[in-house]
Amino acid sequence: MSTITRTWKVNGKPIKVRAPAGRRLLDYLRDDLGLIGAKEGCGEGECGACTVLIDNEPMVSCIVPVGQLADGTEILTIEGVEKKRAGRLLQQAYLECGAVQCGFCIPGMIISSYALLPKNPKPPTQAIRPPLSGNLCRCTG
Amino acid sequence: MKTTEKINIRFPQTLAEALRLQARKNTRGTLLAGGTDLMVQWASGTPPPARATSLWNLPELCEIEVRDDDILIGAGVTHAFLGEAKPIHRHLPALIAAAATVGAIQIQARGTLGGNAANASPAGDTAPALLITGGDVLLASLDGTREVPLDEFWTGYRQIAARPDEIILAFRLPKKGSAKERFRKIGARKAQAISKIMAASRIRVRSGRILSAAIALGSVAPTPIRLTQVEALLTGQALTPSLVAQAEKLAQTSVKPIADIRSSAEYRRWVAGRLVRDALENL
């Protein structure tokens, strides 16, 4: 085991990280920081329920060892996204469209949707599919 | 404690530092790039190594250099970065298409070209697209850099030609020039699917005659392979429906796929032929 110390920004707040280098970012967020919005679905990088933004790019936090995130890394989880205007609008849109059944995949879905908007503010349906294709919903198939 | 937390991971800041670590048996670690294969394997039953050496974001591995006849792509370049590197798209369209089919965007943002090659899965999506370029892999060690032709890089099931002290530095990939490239992946669904079979082709035709043909398949053998018999059949010939039919048939008889959880041997053999037909009918 090797221990790393890093300074990141998580949801805009500076965080001093001290953890085993191989700890999964998902475990660090949930167990060390208490940010339980990111969910563990498969734990194998398939389902997207643990998606967070790392320096603005959506990544699955279950396969990212914390040691690989350098000082200055900015991480945004669903707890941070829901404080942003676009995040709140997305949450509301998901509600109004009845997108949510059990809800387990939704934090990841919202994160992937949120990441898409700066690149494509008014995406047609076809442009939404690929960016959301890494988020699986087991309720609706 | 989760299994991956037990690993002693080193984080060299330069290639030289990484090469020094890998040169000695007692500091050498399993090379870890974006972790999209290794982190999954270690979390799901494969015993993790005592040591790993992280290559993630190592600056010397993250460069792309466009030269007159070929392109150097650093091993640490992610699939997502390939998608954004527009100036290389017209020179290597099959590789760009292949990179866009790896997992989904969350995986493309982490997975690297070098990692995909080093993982050496026969189902690695970028491998056939690399093979058709006829390029080389650049392997670095403290002894210097050597080039290994991509044809000779995958030596067996999950085995590569790199020595334990070597790190994949980059890929040297000749531009396609006037040839036409195509990449097709057949999986259970479009995203987040490990391939049943995939094909990449680089074929040059002039005045209805095939001047050169490079066709590669994945998931039909222990390694990604070039269809050398089919290539030989096609080269120099007029592109006619009967030639296409011959090539389809030869592709089916020249591969020996296995059956596994993703597909049957019969299906893979059949589709191997159809993918060759597809390449030839879209020139």
Structure, explained:
The complex is a heterodimer of chains A (141) and B (283). Chain A is of the alpha+beta class. Chain A has five helices and five strands. Chain A has a single domain, classed as Roll (Ubiquitin-like (UB roll)). Chain A has a five-stranded mixed sheet with strand order 2-1-5-3-4. In chain A, helix 3 packs across helix 4. Chain A is globular, with a radius of gyration of 15 Å. Chain B has three domains: 49 residues, no CATH class; 113 residues, Uridine Diphospho-n-acetylenolpyruvylglucosamine Reductase, domain 3 (2-Layer Sandwich); 88 residues, CO dehydrogenase flavoprotein, C-terminal domain (Enolase-like, domain 1, 2-Layer Sandwich). Helix content of chain B is 31%, strand content 25%. In chain B, strands 4-5-10-6-7 form a five-stranded antiparallel sheet. A four-stranded antiparallel sheet of chain B has the order 11-12-13-14. The interface between A and B is medium-sized, with 34 and 33 residues.
